[in-house]
Write a structure and sequence with these properties.
alpha/beta; Rossmann fold; five-stranded parallel β-sheet; 5 strands; binds adenosine-5'-diphosphate; binds thymidine-5'-diphosphate; EC 2.7.4.9; dTMP kinase activity; nucleotide-binding
């Protein structure tokens, strides 16, 4: 039987990375084989593209196309084979991030993104997407506590991140049952409980 595809989304600092390992553990405890991966990245070529995307200034359309180029490679080399084997795939970001960041944040025409999406993954969509939602100010406070250098996206101003957040919420509202909005402005334990309930509901 084909595996399931779960993605995590949210603005930078929303706290999604903190929960990915827990979800993989939960799925493995139910006897499933899990592939945990991320975008942009997830393949040797994709990780090289990630370095460029996160640190090299570029035209907005170049950025969108490189996101989808990395995704094409990721689907062909990792995601599709895993799902076909019956493994479950847990991915830190996927195409919803391109709609939110390049579409909402940077203002790229949605039709161009639809064309790229159609080319790269046709009708394949995640079975479940967890959207970690919280105000930008709260996410920013979390990020500044980390001492690492901020990437090109994290360096963007508040209005950029507010547009990303709105684009995510609009996408969730239009997604039917696929996307679940999680209030991420709560203590970690409460979020973990919500995440586990939602993920368990698709394991049955
Ligand atoms: N619920 C939470 N409350 C407070 N801080 C959190 C919470 N979840 C995560 N953090 C902290 O916020 C920062 C960003 O979390 P992370 O999981 O890396 O976010 P993301 O992957 O969404 O960018 C980390 O330092 C993490 O320890
Ligand atoms: C997948 C994807 C990510 N991004 C951005 C969002 C993030 O700022 C950045 C890297 O994502 P992420 O791995 O979540 O970064 P971090 O672990 O530092 O939180 O790439 C896009 O702009 N478009 C996309 O399609």
């Amino acid at each position: 039987m084909r595996g399931k595809f779960i993605t995590f989304e949210g603005i930078d600092g929303a706290g999604k990375s903190s929960h990915i390992a827990g979800v993989c553990e939960l799925l493995r405890s139910r006897g499933l084989t899990v592939v945990s991966t991320r975008e942009p990245g997830g393949t040797p070529l994709g990780e090289k593209l990630r370095e460029l995307l996160l640190h090299e200034p570029m035209h907005l359309e170049t950025e969108a196309m490189l996101m989808f180029a990395a995704r094409r490679e990721h689907l062909a080399a990792v995601i599709e084979p895993a799902l076909a084997r019956g493994d479950w795939v847990v991915c830190d970001r996927f195409s919803d991030a391109t709609y939110a960041y390049q579409g909402g944040g940077r203002g790229l025409d949605r039709h161009k993104l639809l064309d790229l999406e159609h080319w790269v993954h046709g009708h394949l969509q995640p079975d479940l997407t967890l959207l970690f939602d919280l105000p930008f100010a709260v996410a920013r406070e979390r990020i500044v506590l980390q001492t690492r250098e901020l990437d090109r996206f994290e360096q963007e101003r508040a209005d950029f991140h507010e547009r990303v957040r709105q684009a995510y919420l609009e996408r969730a509202a239009a997604s039917g049952q696929r996307m679940h909005v999680i209030d991420a402005d709560r203590p970690r334990e409460q979020i973990k409980k919500t995440v586990e309930e939602i993920v368990s509901s698709i394991c049955r």
